[in-house]
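Give me structure tokens for this 225-residue protein.
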Amino acid sequence: MPPWRPLATLGLTLGCTLPGLALADVWKVVDENGVIQFTNEPPGKKGQLVISSNATEPLQGTSRASLPDATAHTTVAVIHASPAYQAVHGSLSAAAQSYGVDVDLLKAVVATESAFNPKAVSSKGAVGLMQVMPTTAQRYGVQSDRGATVSAKLADPDLNIQTGTRYLADLLKLFGGQTELALAAYNAGEGAVARAGNRIPNYKETQSYVRKVMSIYQLLQAHAG
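Here you go.
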């Protein structure tokens, strides 16, 4: 048992759920099995500080009240340390360039949707990294055949990212580049946003989803800058 208490463990998926945690120092540690873990207890010389409790100044043009919370800070640190993210980084960059979507937005969506697990399947049948519904994929030409169903095809990371990015790009165009509305539509459907008067629908899940993605996206942009 390590002398420090892990916050999250990275295998092929991302573990980064820290509800209600105040922003604190977070270290990255590689254990004896080569597994990356995160801890808020100083691990000694073996640890690398990835989040500082002093890093709480507002981003330019951002009020302190709207700052990303500790979960977002830790998620960003975990994304960049994740082998699962590294495995699809090239595909995300290629899709972002092809369809004119900010790659940091794609990273935030994938982190929120699937924690970079290409095998993730939701209770509603959404599949893969970007949790694409088979019916949505069919709109973009993904069809079943004798070899595989649409759902099975969406388990392919490249196809999943390409399809999800095309859909997100179309939503951004549909809602005039308003990222929050596009994200709300990605989560709840474009019809739900339209029925809400082109506002984020009054669904707790959707509102939480938009806040989470935007929080991660904001931090990724700040780090890129």
